[in-house]
Amino acid sequence: MAIEFSSIRKEGLSVQIANAIRSAIIDGRLVVEERLPSEAELSDRFGVSRSTVREALKRLAAQNLIRSERGSSGGAFVNRITRDEAQESLVTTLRLMIGMNDIAFEEAIEARFTLESACLGLAAGRCKAEDLAELRAEIDRQRSPDLSDEDFCASDVTFHSIVGRATGNPLLAFQMAGAVEAMQPLMNMLVYRLRDRHRIADLHEGIANALEQRNADAAWQNLEALASYTRELADKRRAPRQGSGDTSNN
Q: What's this model's pTM, rounded to 2 decimal places?
């Protein structure tokens, strides 16, 4: 097993050990389903107590990088992270960054729509009939007068996640779904009282129609209109605060 041991310092040992094992997993030096050395072996290799090793393993387990199995053939094994687990981690990280003001609202809008803009070219060429059917089902939901604000937000997220999936590229679909799920609810929360649902549904329908027609340019135009409308709503929301001396992004 190729884990770097020589750079371990005498502070934050459990964190350093966890990072060393994590690096070995990410770099492919430890492969999925490979069994890690025992706590006693790791303790000897790192020159630390077993309790320190145990704490490091707990950190890795919390990140879903390893799992523990009991029995004679048990131990700690490199875990196979599912897409759902990876996306949950991505969403949590992005929401923390935005929520803690490391990312401004305008920057979040820019990132979210730039990513989707990059997806539209592929989606226009690769979207399937089932993708289009799902997009239109969400548009129908969004036009329902009985739909709650919470359900409208959820449908909004689903619509744009389907656009990512329509690219046929699993990495783009993963990134798009994670970004939209992380950013869109925050945007919706900030501007939902001001938005016109029918206008948003119309723009979504424009995107769906363009994808059905394999027209990437028309899809981009509708997406840009949606981005502009989102910025317009954000500006309206900020205006009263700026007038009262509050210039915060959130």
A: 0.72
